[in-house]
Fold this protein.
Amino acid sequence: MRRKIFGEEHEMFRDSVRSFMQKEIQPNRDKWHEQGIVDREAFLKAGEQGLLLMWADEKYGGAGVSDFRYEQIIIEENAWYGDAGFFMTLHSRLVGPYIGQLGTEEQKARWLPKCITGEHILAVAITEPGAGSDVAGIRSRAEDKGEYFLLNGSKTYISNGILADLVIVVARTDQNSRHGLSLFVVERGMEGFERGRNLRKMGLKSQDTSELFFNNVKVPKENLLGELNRGFYQLMHFLAEERLLGAAGYLAAADVAFDITMDYIKERKAFGQTIADFQNTRFMMADMRMNIDVAQAFIDQCVDEHNHGELNADTAAKAKLFTSELECRVMDDCVQLHGGAGYMDEYPICRMYLNARVSRIYAGSSEVMREIIARSVGLDPRKKKKKAVENQASAA
Ligand SMILES: Cc1cc2nc3c(=O)[nH]c(=O)nc-3n(C[C@H](O)[C@H](O)[C@H](O)COP(=O)(O)OP(=O)(O)OC[C@H]3O[C@@H](n4cnc5c(N)ncnc54)[C@H](O)[C@@H]3O)c2cc1C
């Protein structure tokens, strides 16, 4: 299906990103998979190519291009020719904007240039051993000690956790409010900031997902990002874009799986014919193509809305929910069509199947997405409860 959101300049950009991925990223796939982490040089090379934090102003070394389509292209080309565990988009477009949009002029000048060159790698640390979906349950705390904040707590499942030089840490700063959170930039080398294990995972083996520990870390006042105690609402502000980033990637992964499966079923024979000739196979492929194309039209529409500042939280939740569930269904069908080969690590579909499973869990689980969508159609038990309490109060 011809996609209508891209112009000639986007297509030229896609060609250059494709060459970059094919030359600098793809050849490292197996090595990074084995070592459980990508090489730092990958970020430096992406920086050299001008692919990091493209939205950042030219005065910091960025390209000043906020058009989401460029990041969408990077995400898609990384899915096709890069490496699923190379979380360059998390660095550029998920974490970077916290500094870009919440940072003071001094903070932006201090941090953005090295993030744009790839010398500094970014991560965001929200999840804790006892708080994932329920962000308001965060226990890490930062106490105001006059000249600095004293940060204590631990985080887990943090992407880019080992490589990160700057980590945006969410901590409680108001003990009396469930939403009394703030964001802090914790820098590599700060005393008391320790990294735990590079966690062993089902998939995304080349991605360094780790634990982080903060023991009496003295975070300078000038590393508070955004307004004190407003962290919860600041996090919410970025969610729509984060979910769209995810959705673009999940869908691209499904498209890649479809393509490699198409090649496989045309080659492989059983009962004197190719696997592709069985009606069951043709119907499965038809269903996959239909779903991917329909989803693509929706995602491209979301990208367009986002570029116009119109993407709302529930539309982004629909995009994330639909594409992550579709990705998992497609991977499962593609493994099935590969037969035993699909279960073998040496076939790309095997790793893709394992990589996909997390898409329904992180960046807001499928259940949380359904919750958001249900509320958007007026099914919100919290409002019902609130109304009942108000009615009781007025009756009393
Ligand atoms: C590979 C990987 C990378 C990650 N990267 C990062 C990162 O960079 N930074 C970061 O901060 N975090 C990161 N995470 C954490 C991720 O965001 C959380 O795992 C996710 O939010 C779910 O939280 P949880 O694991 O605590 O599950 P829980 O919140 O304990 O959920 C368990 C189950 O209960 C369901 N559930 C929870 N609440 C509800 C509800 N209200 N209604 C219905 N069902 C519900 C969930 O959907 C899920 O099925 C990463 C996780 C993984 C696996």
About this structure: The longest helix spans residues 231-267.
